Amino acid sequence: MAAKAKLKRKSYFVDERAIARAQKALGVKTGAEVIRLSVERVAEMEEFWQFMKKSRRTLKPGSVEKS
Which terminus of the chain has a smaller tally of CB atoms within 10 A, N or C? Predict the structure, then answer.
């Protein structure tokens, strides 16, 4: 997560089972951590997919080695 993030108190209705599942998957202790980490990861994935759209078809076949 970003260092020294500015936190703001919000109130939302959220499915408790979804929070519990995400908490287990993310390995965090509190519901607040689940929400913060989930939102951050969604934002990171959106940035990644925007990069992927921009760089589509710019690599030549065979230019990336498989590990």
Answer: C
Please, are residues 39 and 4 in contact by the beta-carbon 8 Å criterion? Answer: no
- Long-range contacts of the stretch 41-48 (C-beta < 8 A, 24+): none
Domain boundaries, the chain: 17-54
Q: Which pair of structure tokens corresponds to residue 49? A: 């997919």
Q: How confident is the model at residue 2 (pLDDT cuts 50, 70, 90)?
A: low
